[in-house]
Design brief:
The chain is of the alpha/beta class. The strands form two sheets. An eight-stranded parallel barrel has the order 1-2-3-4-5-6-7-8, surrounded by five helices. Helix 7 links the parallel strand 4 and strand 5. The protein is globular, with a radius of gyration of 22 Å. 47% of the residues are buried.
């Protein structure tokens, strides 16, 4: 039997619809989903926290609490970026611990913890905190392809995670790069080497993910990630209905009722029509360029947007070819948040500036300095020299250089915060959270006074910004 983690409420809409689904759009179908028989439902983490306060004007902490009222039988799962939590930098241990405890309080049962560099040092504080909170710690191994990433290296990391006390191991293939044959070999080895359940997560970007899941099932995988069909395929996960039907009447039968899934899909087709404006056609169909450039779907969309802002969309092929060159030069980091953004932006700079490494982003410099963790491979000496000069990279765990922040930030945000959750929101996204908290208290009027001349006005509706043209009425 293969179990299903349904990702519709997190990775499904993050991968296809810019994480724009609102909590209120989820509620009507939750009880139906709760009775489906999923192993878990991924509902939080990743970009959902940022999106809630930045675009949706929602308190992100309210979502798991609300969902928990309806999902009484199905464990709630979140994606946690190790020491980065749900943000884009390393946070001190006191922030990590407090975040995990508050997330568990809010209703999260399973924490999938990963590090962009597969640096276990960046996962240890979060794993310990999850265990202390009496929740399920799922340690994730980020899958990628390079001369230094091998089945042996992935198995070695999984064994270390088991030794650290994780309750399950996830192989996180964020770009959909894992071939069916590799899935079989890797899962087979893992089943021989570790005793905890194994979850495989992949994306349909290249088109072969359903076959990859089939071979993983033959090798003994315990859990796979899927999304209800209107939110599946393309840069998302394979459709839940597809995989349930594939495994029906086989040794891997999920036991899930396809008729129930169709009722769920019918609801999400309506939601998909509302969210369709946030997607691109290339994100909905197979794109085998990912196999050549190893660029995840979300990163591909980001590169398009960066080039569009620079009026350089015609450079996309040059940038895609530059990404693997940059990646090789800086030690083959997996292209997952935040490294996908760091490598991708550097590739854009290399192409647009006309001279490679002429402009280096602050984030790339921090990566080369070791502030994100230990690079998987060696960074080319000439690149290191050009970026750091005589400065030596750090070798300690990056968080060891950070002082506790919670009490300091509590003082900074003051009476704007009504709870420890608000303080954590401020810790993660200071500027965005401050504006959100001010709006909530009625201290920020984001509808500017109209100018004496001019007919364009900026208004805010449900946290989203709109430009409105007003014409004078004439009798």
């Amino acid at each position: 039997m293969v179990k299903i983690t349904d990702t519709t409420l997190r990775d499904g809409h993050q991968s296809l619809f810019a994480t724009r689904m609102r909590t209120e759009q989820m509620i009507p179908i939750l009880e139906e989903m709760d009775s489906a028989g999923f192993f878990s439902m991924e509902v939080w983490g990743g970009a959902t926290f940022d999106s809630a306060i930045r675009f949706l004007n929602e308190n992100p902490w309210d979502r798991p609490r609300t969902l928990k009222k309806y999902l009484k039988n199905t464990p709630l799962q979140m994606l946690l970026r190790g020491q980065n939590l749900v943000g884009y930098r390393h946070y001190p241990d006191d922030i990590v611990e407090k975040f995990v405890f508050k997330a568990a309080e809010a209703g999260i049962d399973i924490f999938r913890i990963f590090d962009a560099l597969n640096d276990i040092r960046n996962m240890q504080t979060a794993i310990k905190a999850v265990k202390k909170a009496d929740a399920h710690a799922q340690g994730a191994v980020v899958y990628t392809i390079s001369p230094i990433h091998t089945i042996e290296s992935f198995v070695k990391m999984a064994k270390k995670l088991e030794e650290m006390g994780v309750d399950s191991v996830c192989i996180k293939d964020m770009a959909g790069l894992m071939s069916p044959s590799v899935a079989y070999k890797l899962i087979k080895r893992l089943k021989e080497e570790i005793s905890v359940p194994i979850n495989l997560h992949t994306h349909s970007t290249a088109g072969w993910a359903p076959v990859t899941y089939m071979k993983a099932a033959e090798a003994g995988v315990d859990i796979i990630d899927t999304a209800i069909s209107p939110f599946g395929f393309g840069t998302s996960q394979p459709a839940t209905e597809t995989m349930v039907a594939t495994f029906k009447n086989t040794p891997y039968d999920t036991g899930i009722d396809l008729k129930k899934l169709e009722r769920i899909a019918k609801y999400f087709r309506k939601v998909e029509r509302v969210l369709r404006k946030y997607t691109r056609m290339e994100m909905r169909i197979a794109d085998t360029r990912v196999l050549a450039y190893q660029v995840p779907g979300g990163m591909l969309s980001n590169l398009y947007n960066q080039l569009k802002e620079m009026n350089a969309e015609d450079k996309i092929e040059d940038v895609l070819a530059e990404v693997p060159r940059v990646r090789a030069e800086v030690g083959y980091p997996p292209l997952v948040t935040p490294l996908s953004q760091i490598v991708g932006t550097q590739a854009v700079m290399n192409v647009i500036s006309g001279e490679r490494w002429k402009i280096v982003t602050k984030e790339m410099r921090n990566y080369i300095k070791g502030l994100y963790g230990k690079p998987p491979g060696e960074i080319k000496e000439e690149i290191k020299k050009k970026v750091l000069g005589e400065e030596e990279p750090i070798t300690v765990r990056p968080a060891d250089l950070l002082s506790p922040e919670f009490e300091k930030l509590k003082g900074e945000i003051g009476e704007l915060a009504d709870s420890e959750e608000d303080i954590l929101s401020y810790a993660l996204f200071p500027d965005v959270a401050r504006k959100f908290l001010m709006r909530r208290k009625g201290l920020l009027n984001e509808i500017p006074q109209p100018p004496k001349e001019g007919k364009k006005y900026k208004i805010w509706i449900n946290g989203e910004e709109y430009m409105v043209n007003v014409e004078e009425m004439r009798e």
